[in-house]
Amino acid sequence: MKLRLHIFTLLFITFSVFGQTPKLEVKVSKTKLGLNQRLQVIFSINTQGADNFQPPKFENFKAFGPNQSVGSHSTYINGKVTQFFQMSYSYVVEPKQKGILTIEPASIVVKGKRIYSEPIKITVTDAIKIPKNPNDPNYIAQENAHLVTYISNRNPYVGEAVLVEYRIYLKNLGLSQLGDYDKPKYEGFWSQKIDDNSNWKRAKYKGEDYEYAVLEKAVLIPTKSGKLYIDEMTRDGIIDIPVKRRDLFGNIITVLGSRVRKTFSTPKQVVNVQALPVKNQPKNFTGAVGDFDYSVTLSKEELKANESSQIRVKVTGNGNLKSFKLPKVVTPSELEVYAPERKEKSAVTTSGLRGYLSETYTIVPQYKGKYKIPNTSFSYFNPKDKKYHTINSEELIVNVLEGKELPKEVVNPVIKQEVKSAGNAFRYIQTTSKFKPKNREFFFNSLWFYVLLILPLVVIPIVIFIDRKNRIRKGDVQGLKLRTANRLAKKYLSEAKKNLGKKQEFYESLERALHNYLKAKLAVETSDISREKITELLEKKNVNTKTISEFINLLKNCDFARYTPITDVEMKSEYEKTKTILTELDKQL
Based on CB atoms within 10 Å of each CB, which residue in 35, 165, 319, 424 is the most buried? Predict the structure, then answer.
């Protein structure tokens, strides 16, 4: 009997719960408040199984939350059992402006159907002044907790570094929680954030002792002159208000009295950026601002033809390292120069970027001789003394000790002769003329008439025959590749063939031919040519391992053969072997 009663009661409760009409209600703690006050908004649903809750957008409000909670209870009155269920979502909101504002409806899905709450009207008035009550936690937090924007220089030059810190100052208070915030935007500045993991520091604020912590730190470099703005910051936090009490032994101790939620905010800041002086500005100035050193160095001053050396242009110091160009190096036309490799290494400090910026040029001389690389100059503006400075580099001399002689230009001299007077050079103008009739010959039935008539009959069959032959040759893909490879091999090996019998010149020209072939086929620079790099590039081109190995052995032979006795027959064999390998390599590429 008791079992039946329990089953009946359980079924009755279940039907009571699921028999309720689903409803999403909204409640607010107040409908009228000041601009500096907050209210609580609670959305609650009375039915189990609801999901996919969508809060309102809270336009014109700043919302914190939600805090979700679930509760249920039952009542038994006059033999009737009623089960109550409630799931709620709670928000704390703060108005952004005055006026009559609307909290839009929220929604939730129940049994596949979305239901909505009612909109709520909120009246927002002027900010309510907090009374000066030393015992009021809100007043204590307002007077002793501040968010401040620190700017190291409010009147910098374009390109001069500025340090910005967002600091929170507290006086005899604690901070237990800080909410998220929107990252400040620095329009008109190059910016770099600095991580600051330092602890609380002591400092004076408005003449009183405070502790402060840095919430955000960044180095800014203005890129244009005029008034630039640094964004405001707004953050929510929970302030711990301590109180002093006596313990059991009568000693005064400090304990946590209460906690207050406070919104910290700092206004938008203005930075007046000065334009760089136009007076005495060097012509080669490219925007460098700071304190720098400048140098141009040569890795090797003496070398052989077709060996490489590097010219390094380097600026070191503190300033806007990422915002200017380095001077260009001009070299003689007899030196082969490759595009510079740019490197930069810098660290962000509180005074800007500190490090270096460099460009390295690789040069390869072709002929024997001494070549002069003209000096260059670098100019920068130093904000400390408000002056432009120019640093000049020294001239560099590249001395090529071995190699071909530079061919001399042959100038055809203009031979001037005196004008000689002939006896009949100048004659009197004739006053009469004698004309003779010229015989007229018609084109029709002439020799040229028959030649031009027969010529197309002869030329057209020849053109058709040649065209067919060319099509057959082009259709032969393997033959075409072979012919192309042979032509390329002969092209690159022509100089080596001329030097057969001269060991030193032959292997130098042979190695140069191999390098030039790689530059043409793989688009690789001379400075990047190494055996490991060649192997890697050829493997990426799906060249078989045997051909790669033979090509690498050729390069090794060119190095070893210069210092070992070699006969003309061996050189001839090396030449034919190189020609065969280049032909095979070109077919695979």
Answer: 319
* pLDDT at site 410: 41
Contact present, 149 and 170 (Cβ < 8 Å): no
Q: What is the DSSP letter of 274?
A: B
Of 337, 339, 330, 331, residue with least CA distance to 363: 337
In 372-500, which residue ranges form alpha helices assigned H by DSSP?
Answer: 447-475, 477-498
**Lowest mean pLDDT segment, chosen from 95-109, 348-362, 528-542:** 528-542
Give residue 355's pLDDT: 93
Q: Which whole-number Å values give the CA distances from 396 to 134, 292, 302, 326, 399, in the listed order?
A: 77, 22, 11, 18, 10
If you ran DSSP here, which 8-state letter would residue 31 be given?
S
Show the tokens assigned to 535: 């192997």
Give the model confidence (pLDDT) of 464-517 as tens digits. 888 888 877 766 655 555 555 556 556 667 777 787 878 778 878 878 887 777
Provide mean pLDDT across the span 324-351. Answer: 88
For residue 150, the cross-strand partners are 165
CATH of domain 477-588: 1.20.120
Show the tokens assigned to 432. Answer: 């009469």
- Residue 339 carries which DSSP code? P
Tell which CATH classification among 1.10.3260.10, 2.60.40.740, 3.20.20.70, 3.40.50.2000 matches the domain 290-400: 2.60.40.740
Residue 297 DSSP SS3: strand
Strands 61-77 and 113-116: unpaired
CB 167 within 8 A of CB 160: no
List, in sequence order, every residue forming a beta bridge with 311; answer none if it has no partner: 298, 361
- CA-closest candidate to residue 379, choices 286, 262, 452, 265: 286
Average pLDDT over residues 40-44: 90
CA dihedral sign, ordered 212, 217, 219, 223 = negative
Longest dimension (CA), the chain: 160
Domain segments of the chain: what residues?
A: 2-125, 137-273, 290-400, 477-588
Of the candidates 101, 123, 107, 94, the residue with the CA atom closest to the CA atom of residue 43: 107
Q: Which residue, 518, 558, 520, is CA-closest to 535?
A: 518
Instruction: Decide if pLDDT at 116 tops 70.
Output: yes
pLDDT averaged over every residue in the chain: 80
List of residues 6+ apart from 252 with CB closer than 8 A: 244, 245, 246
- List CB contacts of 377: < 8 A, sequence separation 6 or more: 282, 284, 327, 390, 391, 392, 393
Q: Which CATH class is domain 2-125?
A: mainly beta
pLDDT band at 417 (very low <50, low <70, confident <90, very high): very low
Which residue is associated with the tokens 């001269």?
502
Q: What single letter denotes the amino acid at residue 272?
A: N
Which one is predicted more confidently, 149 or 447? 149
Amino acid found at 73: H
* pLDDT of amino acid 421: 46
